[in-house]
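Treating backbone geometry as a discrete language has practical consequences that deserve illustration. Part of our work consisted of pairing the sequence of a single chain with a tokenised description of its backbone. We regard such an encoding as a compact summary of how the chain folds. The amino acid sequence and the backbone structure tokens for this protein are reproduced below.
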Amino acid sequence: MTSKFLKLTSLTIALFAMGTGAAHAEYPEHPITLVVPFAAGGPTDVVARSLGAELGKILKQPIVVENKTGAGGTVAAAHIANSKPDGYTFFLHHNGMATAPALYKNLKFDPLNSFEYVGEVVDVPMTLLARADFPPNNLQEFIEYAKQNADTINLANAGPGAVSQLCGSLLQQAIDTKFTTIPFQGTGPAMTALLGKQVDILCDQTTQTIPHIDAKTVKFYGVTTKDRISKLPDAPTLDEQGLKGFDFKVWHGIYAPKGTPEPVITKFNGALKEALKSEPFKKKMADLGAEIVSEERQTPESLKNWVDAEIKKWGPILQAEGMNVN
């Protein structure tokens, strides 16, 4: 009887193991949430929704984009850090993941240790814009006008730690001028205010600004990267117009709650790599001036190394500028 019992027990264990393996193979079994830390309609949201559409096809489950705004992305990051690591919650964030430690002293998460890393997605250049009726017509006129009228100019951004705020701060440093800054809950609302002529200037990503530049509903002073971009080949950079060394772009990465099973991360990373090769996503990003990162950067290890390096790069810069929220 003992021998028969042992045989039955072994069979039960084997069947259970097979069932467990089958369950893993079926992941995902229901929709996946992709959290975006900024407002709907903004540039990060555009990337997330475009990517989510392709990931949904590959994983055969809907990718539901959830916008959880506040405090430069730290509200959403803290939410993810405390979410259940079941493979059904992921997070798309940009440079703000690396600047948060220098800007917020009381963070409720550790960028390097509170998450599982999935991989990088796209790099996005930024553009310097003004309301359509703003007097300066080019960058040189803007710089001269800004120095003479700094106390009357307001600069919109998406709040502390947002890339629009970082870009705006670098601009003020570059021209040695301070503006009145007006934070919004994302650059979607900030762009609406610019189009409505309620604010004067805005640094924003090409994923949101190119349609407005093409339609000439804003004034466009140049791109923030060192080199010109293919989508706007005739548009000069800020660097070549006199702001030497000005080079700023936005990078995006995907994260999951700490403890998310490795097989899930591996499968989601595989889906990410496949999505980044899809023609619809490639075309959408090209149309918006975004650049899909190289295959070497699409890995968890590469993203974590990049975040670590960016924390070390931006920490001293932000601290020297006294850019601290709490």
About this structure: The two ends are 70 Å apart (CA to CA). DSSP finds eleven helices and ten strands in the chain. The mean pLDDT is 90.
